[in-house]
């Protein structure tokens, strides 16, 4: 039956259905009529529009494939950029930790040096003030002795 032209195939199907209906082999009700109409529609659509539907679906397939490839390429590029930024971040973080450690050590050294210098300066200033007080005390003793001697001389004279 597939070797016959479509018009003869349709005619044979129509005649077979007519005989089957007239002999009450097929009872026509609403469901059967809807099913036959649907089958006729599918057959007609597949014969008439199969090429255009196929080409449309193939075009959509190609377009979807290209969009997917572009999306995957963009994701790959973004992932590579993210990995590069992360590696740069890790290097920067490591460098900052090294600088922090060096600065902390330098601050400790300078702090201990500054503390020693401050103690030295305080000791020197204290010694200098003590010497000044000793000199003032000595001068005061001398002036007091001189005043006492003058007062005794004035009292005795």
Describe what this molecule looks like in 3D:
This protein has helices spanning 6-22, 30-156. It is mainly α and 157 residues long. The chain is rod-shaped, with a radius of gyration of 57 Å.
| Multimer state | single chain
Classification by helices and strands: mainly alpha
What value does the Rg take, in angstroms? 57 Å
What composes the largest sheet? Answer: none
Shape: rod-shaped
Helicity, as a percent range: over 70%
SSE arrangement, N to C: HH
How many helices? The count is 2
The total tally of domains equals 1
Residue fraction in strands: under 5%
Kindly, what is the distance between the CA atoms of the first and last residues, rounded to a whole number of angstroms? 171 Å
On the 0 to 100 scale, the average pLDDT is: 86
Number of strands: 0
Give the low-confidence spans.
Answer: none
Topology diagram in text:
Elements: H1 6-22, H2 30-156
What keywords describe this structure?
single chain, 157 residues, mainly alpha, 92% helix, rod-shaped
């Amino acid at each position: 039956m597939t070797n016959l032209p479509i018009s003869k195939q349709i005619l044979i199907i129509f005649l077979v259905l007519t005989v089957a209906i007239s002999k009450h082999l097929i009872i026509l009700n609403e469901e059967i009529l809807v099913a036959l109409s649907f089958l006729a529609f599918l057959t007609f659509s597949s014969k008439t529009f199969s090429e255009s539907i196929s080409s449309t679906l193939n075009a959509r397939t190609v377009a979807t494939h290209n969009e997917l490839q572009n999306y995957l390429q963009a994701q790959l590029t973004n992932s590579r950029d993210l990995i590069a930024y992360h590696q740069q971040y890790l290097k920067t973080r490591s460098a900052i930790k090294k600088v922090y450690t060096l600065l902390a050590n330098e601050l400790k050294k300078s702090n201990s040096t500054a503390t020693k210098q401050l103690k030295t300066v305080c000791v020197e200033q204290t010694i200098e003030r003590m010497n000044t007080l000793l000199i003032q005390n000595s001068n005061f003793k001398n002036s007091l002795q001189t005043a006492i001697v003058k007062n005794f001389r004035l009292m005795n004279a």
